[in-house]
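[Q] Does anyone have a clean structure-token version of this?
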Amino acid sequence: VNYVILATPPHFRSIHLKAAIEAGKNAFAEKPVAVDGPGARMFSQCRQMNGCEGKVEEAVVGTKGTSNCKDWIRGVDKQLIYRFRDQEVNPYQQEHQDLMASIRAGKPLNEAKTVAESTLTGIMGRDSAYSGRSVEWDEILNSSRRLGPENYEMGSLPFPEVAIPGQYKLA
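[A] Here you go.
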């Protein structure tokens, strides 16, 4: 083994990453957002990289079963409880159809708040994984961290800081 892919929960990832590096392995640690609630665990992940399988999906694991949040629910015994059987809709196509329908109906569709909150939730997950600690909504909302260069212009960009869990500090 000369390459290790870590897809473990965030609280284990830094331990596993350290062990892989100390063993002289090449390591990749993904950062899915995992949200735990009483009796359930929610995973939301997105990977859009050239040459890789693209995934944009969620999963829920609870005390009574699991779901891929798309088309099935299974009990703890793995038996199928529910299966979505309607025609599958492409969500990217549907959002454009909804936009066109709202324009034609004269009823503006404004999802800016939802998109902004969704983006901030993703940033919270990233900074939680980077820092190795919980991040609160107001903390990230009021952070002074800049996620891009000072000036957007043609040319080379400075190499960004490499985030190390436990050492990365929120601004």
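[Q] Thanks! Anything notable?
[A] The chain has four helices and eight strands.
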